[in-house]
C-alpha cells in the first residue's frame, strides 16, 4: 500500500477559540483507552493550563481548513529525581484518519522543543503495553523505557 502523503499541519499553543475542539480530541483519546469522560473537567484543565504557563502547555495541530486534528499536553511538575522543573507528557493524540502523516512526530518534536525552552529537565510519559508504534515514535526521540510500574489511587 502506498504511504499516505505527509501533511503540513500547523503546530501551535492552544488559543481560547480552540478549547472546544481540544476537549473533543482529549475525550476521543481517552475513549480509545476505554476511559469515558465528561467535558467539564477536561475544559477546566485546559483553561488552567492555557492561563498559566507554570502549569505546562497544550499544543494543537491544525490543518489548512482550520480543523484541529491532534493535540499534546505537557504538564509541568517539580521533581526531586530530575532536580527541578520537569514535565509529564500527559496526552498525545492524532485523529485516526490523520495518522501516519507525520503529525504525531511533529507534536512530539515540538513538545521537546518547548520543554527545553522552558528549562524543563526531563520529560516523563507512560505508554500502554503493546503500543509498539507509539513506543517506536518515542524511542526515535531518545525516550528510554523505565523498569517501573505506575500505581494510581483515586481520591475523589
Ligand atoms: C501515537 C499517535 C499520536 C501517532 O500519531 P501519528 O500522526 O500517526 O504519528 P506519525 O505519523 O508521526 O508517526 C506514526 C508512524 O507513521 C510513520 N509515518 C510518518 N509519516 C508517514 C508517512 N508519510 N507515511 C507513512 N508512514 C508515516 C512513522 O514513521 C511512524 O511509524 P514508526 O514509528 O513505526 O516508524 C497516534 O497514533 C495516536 O493518537 N494514537 C492513539 C493515542 C495514543 O496512543 N497516544 C499515545 C499515548 S502515550
What's the short story on this structure?
The protein is α+β, with helices and mostly antiparallel strands.
Q: Can you give a write-up of this model?
A:
α1 (19-32) packs across α2 (39-51). This protein has a five-stranded mixed β-sheet with strand order 1-2-3-4-5, with helices on both faces. The chain is built from four helices and five strands. 33% of the residues lie in helices and 23% in strands. β2 (56-62) and β3 form a beta hairpin. Coenzyme A (COA) binds at residues 3-4, 6, 29, 32, 92-94, 99-105, 125, 127, 131, 133-134, 136-137.
N/C terminus separation:
48 Å
Q: Pick out the low-confidence regions.
A: none
Assign the structural class, choosing from mainly alpha, mainly beta, alpha/beta, alpha+beta, or little secondary structure. alpha+beta
Q: Number of helix segments?
A: 4
Biggest pleated sheet: 5 strands, mixed
Which small compounds were modeled alongside the protein? coenzyme A
Q: How much of the sequence is in beta strands?
A: 15-25%
Question: Major sheet: order of its strands?
Answer: 1-2-3-4-5
Q: Report helical residue fraction.
A: 25-40%
Rounded mean pLDDT score: 94
* DSSP E strands, number: 5
Query: What are the secondary-structure elements, in order, as H or E?
Result: EHHEEEHEH
- Radius of gyration in whole Å, from Cα? 16 Å
Tell the overall outline: globular
